[in-house]
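Most newcomers find our protein records easier to grasp once they have seen one. A record pairs a protein's sequence with a compact description of its fold. An example says more than a description, so a record of this kind follows:
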Amino acid sequence: MSYLRLAMAQINVMVGDFEGNKKKILDYLQLSEKAQADVIIFPELCICGYPPEDLLLKPSFIEDNIKVLEEIRGAVNSSLVCIGFAAKDSDSRIYNAAAFLQHKEIKALYRKIHLPNYGVFDERRYFTPGDHCCLVNFGGIGLGITICEDIWYPDVIQELSRQGAQIVLNISASPYHTGKGRLREQLFKKWAIENRIFLAWNNLVGGQDELVFDGQSLLFDSKGSLLARGKTFEEDLLLIDLSLESFSALRGNIKEGKQQEISHVRYPVKKVFLTSSFRQKTNPKAFYIRSRLSPLTEITKALILGISDYVKKNGFSKVAIGLSGGIDSALTATLAVDALGAENVVGVIMPSQFSSKETQEDAKRLALNLQIHFLQISIIDIYHSYMNSLKRIFNDYPPDITEENLQARIRGNLLMSLSNKFGWLILTTGNKSETSVGYCTLYGDMAGGFAAIKDVPKTVVYYLSRYRNKKAGFDLIPKTIIDRAPSAELAPDQKDQDLLPPYAILDAILKRYVEKDESFSQIVAAGFDSKTVKKVITMVDRNEYKRRQSPPGIKITPRAFGKDRRMPISNKYWKNHK
């Protein structure tokens, strides 16, 4: 039996690292050709990295990425290679494009039609949309090409199928959030069945600033059966043999007019004819499906990859974390060790007069469990020095949040001093619940280079901590840390719930207000106390200025702070619409 061998290179590239990206692409190209692959596909914009953002406005950046495409073209032989890059036309318009390469030539070019412009995406700022579909007849097999967002709409796939595509390829850079993997599989299965096509979706993997790309590349047959799923949060090379007989059956469907009818052809199809003789393959590749991860495993791996890639891609080797004896810093330190190794993580314990003996012991116990180096620097004398300097100015004003924040800012200064002296990247430890309502100190615990759990709700912090202990087989994160009522320990007998609702209630309200954009009345109608809802919404809106000054952090929810949610600091809407 004759086969078409498809290679899907799920790779981790870096924005602007043209030489590094080229080397990786050529390495995977060589591996695929050695494996006798007929068609080899790489992710969206993999030559320049995704998302390149305003680098796309630099003409030199576009030229450099085209130069690399030319260099890769010269290394392509008989295999048909589909690769993503930023194209430019004679009028200097920029396109998110895919090139088909074979025999050291560019055989076809496709320009992405659907440009996402929501959430973390702003492709219309840079790219011009394409105006035609592309169908390559490769040795009698119809290959349609699409890019990322194109596959989330039915029109391009329908037109390619109607014109004779038997396989629709999609090269993608689809960032992760919880639940997205299942959503993709449900939709792509639907398209494969409705259009009677094989659908091959090849995704990027790796961390890029606040985004993490999860891989999990997919292949469905025309009946909607899942034939292959790539690794999650890891590079992978999927090699899949598709029998030519299966494509002959699909040709019959087209001739018989069984394809889904389309009343209006919006995009014309450009067809390219390429000859190929499919050689008898040695070691036929059976279909294989990587296991889908559990939700907590998935989130943990996303955070580990996000930390690892941010640290390494920005030239750091070590990180430092302020260890308070609380659960947020404990989870952050644990994730950092998993991402970088214990030898590259430093814990810094900075007790004040309000720090309990129990939390300090737990911080040390955590450091010993993780086998990381830790430092202890008391802030008591520094705090009294500050207060003596401010005594005359503060005069008879009673103590308030000012004195509490001063402690956090002293700790921030100490951490940044260590960063400057030793070149360590400071990981901040604030979670999404605290960041949402401003329960954090600007220039204090928010001071640092990367906010590892910035998009992790407090309730999920607990789930992840218990999950990590279960995986370790012992209380890697001391049980007393998990069981203790959370406290900032900036005042006597202080507890988070003195100012905040219980975290289960807070997180439920935040999910509705921040992620779903529900109004005050909608949230109250869902059964939440009106006073609590009003308090939470007010805190969220009032603290936009803080979030605007916070370091980037890893996106794991459908809507994270940052590029996902861009609210004006100066506005009256939130005051008038409660």
